[in-house]
Specification:
- By secondary structure, this protein is mainly α.
- Helix content is 63%, strand content 0%.
- Keywords: Membrane, Transmembrane, Transmembrane helix.
């Protein structure tokens, strides 16, 4: 069996950066929709 490396790589960092960007985008989308009277689910 091969030993797995548990050290985070650059790809793990990029994954968290992209996840943060998606969350920030959703927040700004909700804020923008709130200006048009959107009340949410």
């Amino acid at each position: 069996m091969s030993q797995q490396n548990s050290d985070p790589t650059i790809y793990d960092g990029l994954m968290f950066v992209s996840l943060g960007a998606v969350i920030v985008g959703i927040v700004f989308l909700v804020m923008t929709l709130g200006q048009y009277g959107w009340s949410g689910p």
